[in-house]
Specification:
276 residues; mainly alpha; 2 domains; flat
Length: 276
Amino acid sequence: MAAVEKHGVQPEGRLEAVLVAVLLGGYWVLQLVFAFVLEVQPTRTWDFGLVFSAAQQYAQSGVLPGDYFSQFHNNAPMYLVLVAFFKVLGALGVQDVMPAALVCNTLCVNGALLLLYRVLRRLYGAKSALFGLAGAFLFLPFLLYGPIVYTDTVTLPFPIGALALWLSARERPAGAGRMLRCAGAGLLAAAGAWLKITVAIALIAVVLDALLYAGGRRGWKMAGCMVLSFAALYGALSFAALHSPWPCLRPGKGDPLAALGDDGAFRRRRVQRRGL
């Protein structure tokens, strides 16, 4: 990296690929070390533990969860994803699901970092993108959040992937390629928002950029394509979750804030009384 800065050259081709691979490889090694050293038990005293253990219990023994997901329906999609993942592991003969979950969790973080590098490269060039990727070492959550297999990490690739597809779409000439990329951006944002609704902020950002950057009929067509694709997938996924054959996954009528105490803390006794 120092040589790149000293000579003021743009790393291209094989050198660039090697530098990116070394950085991401270094990230992954550290993430795996911290993930296994700091591994936590998925106890039913916090959201990560509740979702993880409930998914594992159903995948391995067919026991449905209590009504936690009817009160906190926003975590039902993550539960369904984990159930599918654990079912696949079970079919492969894997019973101890935590190691595989930690590996996949760190891969989600690294996938997001790779996409971030691609976005920075498209916007600012290879040299700036490499320094940006190296600078990610300064953000400790990228290194230390591996033990928590939850929506915060699993959804990381979705908003950045949507942004990457949008940046690719806006540079292409009119045609099917551009619109397919716009649709892909909307679909990625929708899948991420289904797991964690704040991912929808990425859709708002790219739609505004389409209207301001492209402008006119071109901007409206691209923005409309992204919004429609987002609405189609998000609506379909939400409909499927809301009409799940498992009543325990359907949203209840109670106030989601009912489990919070006066100080904002989670009232564990109430949750235990509700059979969670």
